[in-house]
Design a protein that fits this description.
Elements lengths: L11 E2 L5 E11 L4 E6 L13 E5 L2 E5 L1 E8 L2 E6 L5 H6 L4 E5 L13 H4 L3 E4 L4 E4 L2 E4 L4 E4 L4 E3 L5 E5 L4 E4 L8
Parallel strand pairs: 9-15
Antiparallel strand pairs: 1-2, 2-3, 2-8, 3-7, 4-5, 4-8, 6-7, 9-10, 11-12, 12-13, 14-15
């Protein structure tokens, strides 16, 4: 992780609303109320530390508390939710979404960003050329790539010069071959 252009933490934004989706319940696991979830966060191990979670299903949002996380594999893990104590209760929450209000999201270290903070920012070159808004963040392993309608921007110090959330923009160095 670098200071100017760290990889963002993935938390998906629920259509720009007041909440951010952290996970979706996929299916029960075992007999004790554990569930498999698809993750929208790089830090599932922190879920038990976040007290202001909600689980949302057809009946609307309800307060939720994650008691434990295990079996993290790729973008899935097993979660134990308070009050979900058997397989039948776990089955009842299949397809429900675990979310948190934006205001309750724990802050990241300085110079680090959540995906929802980056997506939608306007990208401009140091020379003032507008490259559009960040539409997607691609994960490559070596570094992330910000995707706009005009360019694919590698998230490395020699390219990303500034991320300014208040101004809603990312300033990049125009590198030969990067922009047509």
């Amino acid at each position: 992780m670098t200071k100017k252009s760290p990889p963002p933490s993935s938390l998906s934004d629920e259509a720009g609303g007041d909440h951010v989706e952290l996970a979706t319940v996929v299916k029960p696991h075992g007999l004790d109320g554990n569930v498999w979830v698809d993750l929208n966060t790089d830090f599932p191990e922190r879920l038990p530390d976040w007290p202001a979670l909600e689980i949302v299903g057809p009946g609307g949002p309800e307060r939720a508390r994650v008691e434990g996380v295990k079996g993290i594999v790729g973008n899935r893990c097993i979660v134990k939710l308070a009050g979900v104590n058997d397989r039948d209760q776990a089955e009842e929450i299949r397809g429900h979404v675990l979310r948190i209000r934006r205001a309750d999201i724990p802050p990241l270290p300085e110079g680090s960003y959540y995906d929802f903070q980056i997506i939608g920012l306007r990208v401009v070159t140091s020379g003032g050329r507008d490259l559009g808004e960040v539409r997607n963040i691609l994960r490559t392993g070596a570094n992330d790539i910000y995707e706009t309608d005009e360019a694919l921007i590698p998230v490395i110090d020699s390219v990303v010069q500034e991320i300014d959330l208040e101004q809603g923009r990312i300033v990049i160095e125009e590198v030969e071959g990067l922009i047509e």
